[in-house]
Amino acid sequence: MGKNLTKRSEDYSKWYNELVIKADLAENSGVRGCMVIKPYGYAIWEKMQAELDRMFKETGHQNAYFPLFIPKSYLSREADHVEGFAKECAVVTHYRLKNAEDGSGVVVDPEAKLEEELIVRPTSETIIWDTYRKWIQSYRDLPILVNQWANVVRWEMRTRLFLRTAEFLWQEGHTAHATREEAVAEAVQMMEVYADFAENFMGVPVIKGTKSESERFAGAEETYCIEALMQDGKALQAGTSHFLGQNFAKAFDVKFANKEGKQDLVWATSWGVSTRLMGALVMTHSDDNGLILPPKLAPIQVVIVPIYKGEEELNAISERVDPLVKELRSKGISVKFDNRDTHKPGWKFNEYELKGVPVRLAIGRRDMENGTYEVARRDTLEKETIKGDEVVSRIEYLLEDMQQHIYKKAFDYREAHITTVDSFDEFKEVLENKGGFVSAHWDGTPETEETIKELTKATIRCIPLDAKEEEGKCVYSGKPSMQRVLFAKAY
Amino acid sequence: MGKNLTKRSEDYSKWYNELVIKADLAENSGVRGCMVIKPYGYAIWEKMQAELDRMFKETGHQNAYFPLFIPKSYLSREADHVEGFAKECAVVTHYRLKNAEDGSGVVVDPEAKLEEELIVRPTSETIIWDTYRKWIQSYRDLPILVNQWANVVRWEMRTRLFLRTAEFLWQEGHTAHATREEAVAEAVQMMEVYADFAENFMGVPVIKGTKSESERFAGAEETYCIEALMQDGKALQAGTSHFLGQNFAKAFDVKFANKEGKQDLVWATSWGVSTRLMGALVMTHSDDNGLILPPKLAPIQVVIVPIYKGEEELNAISERVDPLVKELRSKGISVKFDNRDTHKPGWKFNEYELKGVPVRLAIGRRDMENGTYEVARRDTLEKETIKGDEVVSRIEYLLEDMQQHIYKKAFDYREAHITTVDSFDEFKEVLENKGGFVSAHWDGTPETEETIKELTKATIRCIPLDAKEEEGKCVYSGKPSMQRVLFAKAY
């Protein structure tokens, strides 16, 4: 019962693409670089959204919605920001089509040209800070703690499902504060929220840190990030939270009267995670048989497959299964009883393995006689026979255990793939043969960072927040350094 | 304590615009025709979304996501469809900006011109049916019951907050079926879901019907709709559900092997409601003091305002209020205890009246002595003094009663504004002086419909589903007619 899935060891990248498509998560569309998120993939994204949204609200944030379009001139207001995004902007120039004179279809109506071109938002700092100017007069109007769930467009030349697409879905938080300290605390808080979500819901261990200057968000004074490690030894940036200083307040003239009645510029943060997390989820846990999903985010947590011949036998099985389904649902566990007669049990086993359903129950003639179920867990593929009156507690245990187990496995892999090096030869050797994070001293200059990137394709993923002060010499230039940073090849 | 709100009787349209802005629902943005939905407005929309999403899932639908962009050529495939949407399309022609040579900012890079222009989706039938071709081979793949929550863009020349904006948020369901009967049943079912939602959650009574040919969705064989009536006597289309026949299957070559193994074209529906519902909600219930919200959709259902002097008194009040807040929350009631010392009680009363919070509790010195609360309901503005041990059940009663009461009030208004007429003079007189729906015979021709529209600005809102067969003569042409239809001026 092959899944015709390329093995990870053969071609990790091909394995990933095939898996995303075969597991019905997403597919490419007729529009270059834009994907279709299929119902099963979207159901996982919805679960992620629900948890994140709850966490945002628990930390005092509210949702709002800002325009899709950004006037071209807004982008220019913040110098670094426009520099960072101008090269990948989808631009709306006209607002009407008309019939082609040769009858071949529709063409752009040259008379319907916009006075000012509109950019499809690549991120919303500019349009939001243009709005905040109207919302903020006094310290009483602060803080503003707003989040937006939206689509954004960055015209990437090389795209991959979930990991890098021209259009993607994300959330972007945009907050405004009276003081630098408060804004920094907010940016740090949201990095912590992201780390909590990644580790405790996605089961993806992450390293918290700050970005080097050249990897920082365009317009930020500091970018906090969480970095994950995929099974092929490449790192993946899973979320970022930016302390924007007063840059956007300056660019959009957003001032407030402080408690002393003096005018002051407002402090800002922004923070986001995107459908890219779907890629991280797939690549962290899954195996050559298909998806492995953390139970907390699995759209279907338990599937029950009856093994039967004829309607009578199915009816008898249903009679036993129906109360179980009800009981599991009453405990908030999502269950599917797949009693379709159009597919054989073996086909179904295969399908749910591919789709990463955490627990599979099978029930056939012998189970009916013995009052048992065959219970299989997706992560280890272990099977066991469980008595009917113990099956609910066993399922509860398995869901909990799997959530822990896949995290632990990913954590152990990650820990085994952080290598401390002190020479550039070693640096290159580790990147070449082992992969993962390389912990090395760096002289702090963008020049060295750039040279290392050119020579090895590795970038500084982050300066870990928990790094100890340590005297050393830059692994490339030999100049003095006070702290190790983490390099890796990355998605 | 004025709200400086224009009275409905003075200028209904101005009242609406002011209310939307003053109640913090939405505002205009720096982008022509695009609005900012503010946190309070968005919280109402989120409640609508949650209910609708639940109803869609209970009727077997799943969510998915399709690209924002539609290749220009896709639109041309369905003749009526392109005719309907070409005149209001935002068109992406380029994918990069570059620095202007004179240093004045960024300009569109002429070298980054797209080979084929992309339309920002005005609706997604074309991109979705291009995708369904890949998903559908056999009758086993049907039905497909998919919904999408998304933003869409229609370049309207005259826009109004929520009612008509260039960009708006909506959901669009797109389903595929093996038979005509099944597709028609789906379209009717979704109209019923919309009517259920409008009446039982929004408290907005609606008339279910079908559209005349000229009011039909571009590409549909039948459009089912729900029509509501606003307080100024104008109708508002609140939701539509389309039976699309095989038009899009033909245009995108989507065929399936039926049970007999023969190739057949797939049958389609699409259905949608949008942030326009926010406009309907505001205009149906609200009064000259501000919003009136149905309790089921109110982001804050109960607000508690302490009336106190000094911290000690506030502490005593808090001690009594805190357990009440907890008890209400445990019952799923959303409560805000507004103990801010930056605003006076009178200011707060005004603010929550403006924002339509259904129940307001006030507690001052005398209430502390007597163990009571002053309880006010927003719809009738009635106040009463309630003992502490009765306040929870009174609140539960009031929330339920208000939900019923505002529906009943809107229903009675609507019923009083359906006028049966048999002459064109009467037709014009009713439209001019009374407004509302005019029930009249119509000869069934688009020409008569168009003439009536030119003469009176009234359009056929719908052919009611529950209309009785009745012999009569067209109110304009005098030609024979078998059924009355509903005319009205409309948003």
TrEMBL record, chains A, B:
Positions of the Aminoacyl-transfer RNA synthetases class-II family profile domain: 27-294
GO molecular function, one term: proline-tRNA ligase activity
Recorded domain comment: Consists of three domains: the N-terminal catalytic domain, the anticodon-binding domain and the C-terminal extension.
Protein name: Proline--tRNA ligase
InterPro entries for this protein: aa-tRNA-synt_IIb, aa-tRNA-synth_II, aa-tRNA-synth_II/BPL/LPL, Anticodon-bd, Anticodon-bd_dom_sf, Pro-tRNA-ligase_IIa_arc-type, Pro-tRNA_ligase_II_C, Pro-tRNA_synth_II
Keywords linked to the UniProt accession: Aminoacyl-tRNA synthetase, ATP-binding, Cytoplasm, Ligase, Nucleotide-binding, Protein biosynthesis
GO cellular component: a single term: cytoplasm
